[in-house]
Amino acid sequence: MPKKLIETFSVEWLQVLDEDGNCDEGLRPSLDNKQVREIYEWMVLTRTFDDKAFKLQREGRLGTYAAALGQEAAQVGSAYALRSTDWMFTAFREPGAYLVRGLPMRMIYQYWAGDERGSQIPEGENDFPICIPVATQIPIAAGAAMAAKYKGDAVAVMAFMGDGATSKGDFHEGLNFAGAFAAPVVFVCQNNQWAISVPLKRQTAAKTLAQKAIAYGFPGVQVDGNDVFAVYRAAQEALERARAGMGPTLVECLTYRLGDHTTADDASRYRSREEVEQWKRKEPIDRLRKYMEKSGLWDDSREQALRAAAKEKVESAVHELESFPAPDPLDIFRFTYQNLPVELREQMAGFSKANGGGDPRD
Ligand SMILES: Cc1ncc(C[n+]2csc(CCOP(=O)(O)OP(=O)(O)O)c2C)c(N)n1
Ligand SMILES: [Mg+2]
Question: For residue 133, which atom of ligand 1 is closest to its CA?
């Protein structure tokens, strides 16, 4: 019996803006000048937010923090392609995506300050809170997409994850389910090439992460994750595919974690300074600014005004964070049970009494 080829695959690489801000006009997504400036503004706001978070942590005003430094295009570009009716599930390194979606900045700070009210997404918003257990958001996002399809809602779901998450069972189960049921979900992998101290080459022997989608029967594309036009274009096309009933897509954004894993880490112990320096030259914000300057969309005075406005927004969110009323300690008993078990009810009453309160209601 002769052997025959029954399947082949290919993975596209997409880059629109090169490192010097030169644009391939044939691939440029349809964004007007106002939208290009807006995307740049979100990226700068994300950077300003991020920088302040790092400083707050060092001053003991935030618990811990996972910086987005260098990954702003992957987050802003993909979230910018969402409609307000779409749904978003993140991991923990996507402040840019939340900002674009309009989540109050104070809430993101609150989350990292250890205040669970940072996870209480306002009623009516279609986003889920920060998810620390790696990859667990992926099957939930696939399930939400399936629910939307079942209900006939014309929406898509976007699920973020890191490169490390692609080694978890949840990733494979989520993608397999989404593929088998053509769920309207776009998986966005921020491949920042490190999972704490594990480099990409120890994460997988595959040439790309995008190709993992092919095993599950749907397309995967690798984009320059520091090129916001490429990210936006790929996300937009994938969301349209999902909304049109054509099923999921995996968008791998090849980027780089310029900072430490979190404020509790020291990356200089496991990666070289040269590698970081090499990626600094490819960072996404300078790249878009160079493009905008060349195209006459941007100048120094706009830049200065933007930086000042971003700083003001961040300072005002920090002020909100630090003047927020303290949570009610009795909340630890609330929100888990429909009817509080009797022993917890007793504990709650005892706790309230010990703190000078009356008989509490659960
Ligand atoms: C289930 C689970 N295992 C381990 C951890 C500890 N942990 C936190 S982040 C991380 C690495 C994640 O790497 P990646 O998915 O590449 O995301 P990145 O941190 O690079 O954004 C690990 C192992 C965790 N949070 N959850
Ligand atoms: Mg990573």
Answer: 26
